Amino acid sequence: GLFVKHTRTGNPLVDSVAEHQPASTAAYEQYLHHAYRLAPAGLVASALLARPTDARVFLWTYAAVAYYFSSKMARLIILLGPAASALGGVALGLPVDYLVLDALADLGSSFLAARKVPPPGKKKPVAKWRGRLRRAATFWMTWIWSSRLGAVARVAGGAFALRTLVYPKAVEFKDYAYQLSEGLSQPSIMFKARLMNGEEVIVDDYREAYLWLKKKTKKDSRILAWWDYGYQ
Fold first, then answer.
1. How far apart are CA 188 and CA 93, in angstroms?
2. Separation of first and last alpha carbons in the chain
3. How far is Cα 27 from Cα 226, in angstroms, rounded to an integer?
4. Confidence of residue 11 (pLDDT cuts 50, 70, 90)
5. Which of 89, 138, 167, 226 is the most exposed place for a label (fewest CB within 10 A)?
6. Distance CA 192, CA 228 (A)
7. Cα–Cα dist 63/47, whole Å
8. What radius of gyration, in Å, describes the C-alpha atoms of the chain?
9. How far apart are CA 104 and CA 52, in angstroms?
10. How far apart are CA 20 and CA 8, in angstroms?
11. Per-residue pLDDT tens for 170-205?
12. Which pLDDT score, from 0 to 100, does residue 7 have?
């Protein structure tokens, strides 16, 4: 009575299983949480801001293949977990590199040796005001970014962002992961379900089947069944 109309594979047993249906946005958010939003940003950042390497190409390919198959069958979201985690790490790691680590390196080198910014080179007198404006903007942006004051500002901004934005989300993700793992590790043999007409029913098939087996079979019997029952 709970089987949905089999229109995808032609096999009513396969099509009736919820995990065999296409993954929805809610399913991605449930199982990937913050990584669901960070992964696309990491994919774009690694493609645009980093040089292609074997490792990056493998990650892009793996993410694309895993997303394709998970969009066809919800249970395959598990394949997307490692790729989403890696791309989420890229999305978080690149800003940390640019704002904190590179700034610390610039700050350290400025104390070890005087940093000299070369003067703008001479250029042919073509569109003088445009060339001067462009050179001046490049000079000052480079100087501010690489100066001690700029490095300190970058470190402070990165530390502030980590403390106020990243750390609370990390704690939230950790708590959610523990809650989800506990919920998934405690399956029940009775649960509520809703029919296609909206009626709410109690599914008691597992318990009734176990009770029938207890009464009708010998204690040393071996039961051949659909593998889902192994969860119990």
1. 40
2. 22
3. 25
4. low
5. 226
6. 18
7. 13
8. 29
9. 26
10. 10
11. 899 999 988 888 877 766 777 787 888 888 888 888
12. 55
Characterize 134-163 residue by residue with b for buried, 16 or more Cβ atoms within 10 angstroms of its Cβ, and e for exposed. Answer: eeeeeeeeeeeebbeebbeebbeebeeebe
Distances from the Cα of 188 to the Cα of 34, 79, 112, 208, angstroms: 28, 25, 64, 13
DSSP letters, 104-162, are HHHHHHHHHS---PPPPPP--SSSHHHHHHHHHHHHHHHHHHHSHHHHHHHHHHHHHHI
Copy the structure tokens of residue 167: 């750390």
Strand partners, 202: 192
- Global pTM reads 0.60
What does the pLDDT look like over 45-86, one tens digit per residue? Answer: 888 877 888 988 999 999 999 999 988 888 889 899 999 999
User: Cα(221)–Cα(12) distance, rounded to whole angstroms?
Assistant: 29
Amino acid at 45: A
Contact 106, 158 (CB under 8 A): no
Q: Distance between CA 225 and CA 211 in Å, rounded?
A: 15
**Structure token pair of residue 203:** 């599914």
Question: What tokens appear for 166 in the block?
Answer: 């990243």
